[in-house]
């Protein structure tokens, strides 16, 4: 196994968010394990299934199913923003939608003023549409997720600059 193949395996494991990946060859053994932060609830233990990819004979591969509780690190807002803005995070794992249907305009845009209870987006989980609402009054200054993208529990969705009290 060369470096290029190794990097490709690591990229795929990260992209598919496998909790564990193991590859054994006669003279080489690779095991990649991702740990889940303790504060994130895990619904079920990952099931182990054999890989179906074309591997040379003599190699065995064991892959665990993706763990939905692993949050994307690159989606986290910088520390400075957290101090200035109120961050709305995903309360569940699912698919993020900015509008009620594909032809409708988004619930909110950057620059829009929101009040507590204003619908910001929908997260689809298990064929149920869950409305995510604002819990503060203020201006939407950032939308962290693209329409139709999967989101993880606790992942930042919106940054809202709270109204200043006079």
| CATH class (first level) name of the largest domain | Mainly Beta
Number of strands: 12
How does the major sheet shape up?
Answer: 4 strands, antiparallel
Principal-axis shape: elongated
CATH superfamily of the largest domain: RNA polymerase II/Efflux pump adaptor protein, barrel-sandwich hybrid domain
The oligomeric state of the chains shown is: single chain
Helix content estimate: 10-25%
Low-confidence stretches: 37-57, 63-77
Number of domains: 2
The CATH topology assignment of the largest domain is OB fold (Dihydrolipoamide Acetyltransferase, E2P)
Category by helix and strand content: mainly beta
Question: Which CATH architecture of the largest domain is right?
Answer: Beta Barrel
What is the mean predicted local confidence, pLDDT?
75
Give the amount of beta strand, in percent: 25-35%
The rounded Rg comes to 20 Å
């Amino acid at each position: 196994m060369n470096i290029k193949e190794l990097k490709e395996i690591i990229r795929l494991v990260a992209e598919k968010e496998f909790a564990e990946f193991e590859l054994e060859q006669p003279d080489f053994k690779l095991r990649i394990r991702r740990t889940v932060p303790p504060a994130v609830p895990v619904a079920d233990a990952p099931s182990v299934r054999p890989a179906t990819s074309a591997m040379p004979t003599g190699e065995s591969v064991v892959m665990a199913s993706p763990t939905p509780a692993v949050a994307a690190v690159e989606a986290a807002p910088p520390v400075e923003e957290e101090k200035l803005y109120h961050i709305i995070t995903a309360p569940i794992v699912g698919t993020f939608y900015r509008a009620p249907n594909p032809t409708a305009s988004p619930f909110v845009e950057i620059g829009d003023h929101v009040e507590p209870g204003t619908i910001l987006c929908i997260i689809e989980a298990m064929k149920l549409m869950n409305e995510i609402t604002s819990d503060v009054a203020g201006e939407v200054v950032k939308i962290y997720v693209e329409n139709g993208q999967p989101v993880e529990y606790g992942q930042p969705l919106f940054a809202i600059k709270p109204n200043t009290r006079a």
